[in-house]
Amino acid sequence: MALVLVVDDDRSLRHMLTHSLEAIGLQVISTATAEQGLALVSERQPDVVLLDIMLPGRSGLDVLRDIQAVDRRLPVIFVTADSGSSTAIEAMQLGAYDYVSKPLDLPQLNSLVQAAVDSRRLMSVAVALSADSTADQSGKLFVGRSAEILEVFKAIGRVAAQDVPVLIRGESGTGKELVAQALYQHSHRKNEPFMAINCAALPDTLLESELFGHEKGSFTGADRRRIGKFEQCHGGTIFLDEVGDMAPIVQGKVLRLLQDQRFERVGGNETISTDVRVITATNRPLEEMVEEKTFRADLLYRLNGMTIFLPPLRHRRDDIPLLLKHFLARAQQSLNKLHIEGMSPDCLEILMNYGWPGNVREMQSVVQQAVLNAIGPIIIPDFLPREVTQNSSPDGEHQSTWKEQQPASRPTDASPTSSDPQHPTIADLGAFIEGQLKSKSTDLYTSVLDRVERYLFTRVLQETNGNQSQAAEILGVTRGKIRDRIASFNISMERKVRADTKVGE
């Protein structure tokens, strides 16, 4: 469980923040003084710090410098009473993760803290580059010893110490973010910030502001100056995921930054210099996009200082047993199901023959669902998600089409394990939550959101007959996010069906 440290002399605010953050599954400790806060940073090693910018007898800026001396990669979020404060701007320039103004918007703050926790994880998780099958599996997410993945390890070793841009290419879910982490952790910038931005998750105007910052009044809603990630990450590494989804105007600004490490904030005239290493990733055919004039050829050449191709899981099948063992160990720990001993031979055979269109990310989800569904010490095929057992074939190719199977009739007292986890009804979801509460789940928030989001995206795509642009408009998200969820949730679109249409009609 992630640990958040709150340093603020307002007792009522500390209590409010503690209650709000604990409600989303975070552990919180708090103190009123800078001295005690610094001591807790050393003793408890929190994942995020919420820091008042005006503490009794000491400036929060000084405390930030002391925190950075202890742990340069610890995200610090400032809390300030003045949203236009030049002090807060200075704090961002010194390397604070972000700042929020009082009175606090607690849901927005919760999301910000969770993003900071994820950022901390990206900077702290050890990456396994060894092909040693006896290596510790407890937290090393980059697992493999096949010839294909060894070539990736070698490529990382050749380029990690250099400052050249790296373009990581591969299908969705193959682990491109882990390659970026490995490049960072084995570089001379490993003690400096690492920031990851998903270019497909933000609208074009917000992405430009997120990367380069903006001046007050530069657009509607810009009520204060904002420092962008390229400025915050001075000296460190930025990972731009789904770089193929960047708008032309953002592409142009990124190109200039790569050329001379300079840029201007949105709406500003001041030229800002920075020193960042840029790592990018995509699952899109950039060369075809260049021909279609949707991606700049000169930017592609700049990004491609070196390309690392990450193979899909179906091309590194020797790694499947090792990855299954790894994810099973992680699921046992995170779901507190240590009584599970392993998988039956027929269950393993199904997983070995499955095509894994969602790659490693899909495998992690499948193993977690199997552990959740397990009612004994051995995982058998009955505990696997239905789309896996129905689409496993000896040649390992994925056999599914877009056929959203309707859940069978269920009794009113259906247990969570009897529900279809991919297509929940309201009753199914309620039963699932009740079951998880009884089993003392420690990952309920993520599990419920995954189920709801999977159902929502599938249902909207059915409504639009697979039209991703219409689906993005209905959901209020980018087309890049639609593509990402199609891959993540293994939504195949070879056949268009209505929500009320049964398979075969």
Please state the second-level CATH architecture of the largest domain.
Answer: 3-Layer(aba) Sandwich
**What coarse outline follows from CA principal-axis ratios?**
globular
Number of separate domains = 4
Main beta-sheet strand count, sense and barrel state: 5 strands, parallel
Average of the residue pLDDT scores = 80
CATH topology of the largest domain: Rossmann fold
Q: Total helix count?
A: 20
CATH homologous superfamily designation of the largest domain: P-loop containing nucleotide triphosphate hydrolases
Strand fraction equals: 5-15%
User: Unreliable runs, pLDDT <50, ≥5 residues?
Assistant: 125-140, 398-424, 495-505
Provide an overview of this structure.
By secondary structure, this protein is α/β, with parallel strands linked by helices. The chain folds into 4 domains: 3-122, 3-Layer(aba) Sandwich (Rossmann fold), CATH 3.40.50; 162-309, P-loop containing nucleotide triphosphate hydrolases (Rossmann fold, 3-Layer(aba) Sandwich), CATH 3.40.50.300; 314-390, Helicase, Ruva Protein, domain 3 (Orthogonal Bundle); 415-494, Homeodomain-like (Arc Repressor Mutant, subunit A, Orthogonal Bundle). The chain is built from 20 helices and 16 strands. It has a 5-stranded parallel sheet, with helices on both faces. Helix 2 (34-44) runs parallel beside helix 3, helix 3 (60-70) runs parallel beside helix 4 (86-94) and helix 10 (248-260) crosses helix 12. It is globular and about 65 Å long.
